[in-house]
């Protein structure tokens, strides 16, 4: 009710719509969450990576195959804009896994672990991805970068 009052007072504030969508997500109202997060994303020109990530999370949570591609596309855009977002990479891994794109899902999981600082786990996922990726492709090169990464001795 408080969020609805804020929206009534400032209907053009995208962050109130985001707040409403996030609250709905945590209450398990994923489809309603999608509506409000999509509105917030549109109000910000579709270029806010954190809102894109929240919207994608809600889309994936609906478990509706029709919404899966949109969620993956949003997450791909979010990680390009904000490459240091392990949550976006983890969600991307989930979406790709659900889509049956297992090597790409493993690579996204590797990137999430790497950004989070868990290099060993990142390397496990990157090696798993590399086995099924075509050698020399951009995804294979990304996985190779993680596999061959050496933790600096001063850390």
Can you describe this structure in just a few lines?
The protein is an all-alpha fold and 155 residues long. The chain has helices at residues 2-9, 14-26, 30-43, 49-61, 65-81, 86-99, 102-116, 119-132, 138-147.
What does this structure look like?
The N and C termini lie far apart (49 Å). It is built from nine helices and no strands. The chain has helices at 2-9, 14-26, 30-43, 49-61, 65-81, 86-99, 102-116, 119-132, 138-147. The protein is an all-alpha fold. The mean pLDDT is 95.
Radius of gyration: 18 Å
Percent in strands: under 5%
On the 0-100 scale, what is the average pLDDT? 95
What's the SSE pattern? HHHHHHHHH
Q: Indicate the low-confidence ranges by residue numbers.
A: none
Quaternary state, please? single chain
Which structural class do you get from the secondary structure elements?
mainly alpha
Helix content: over 70%
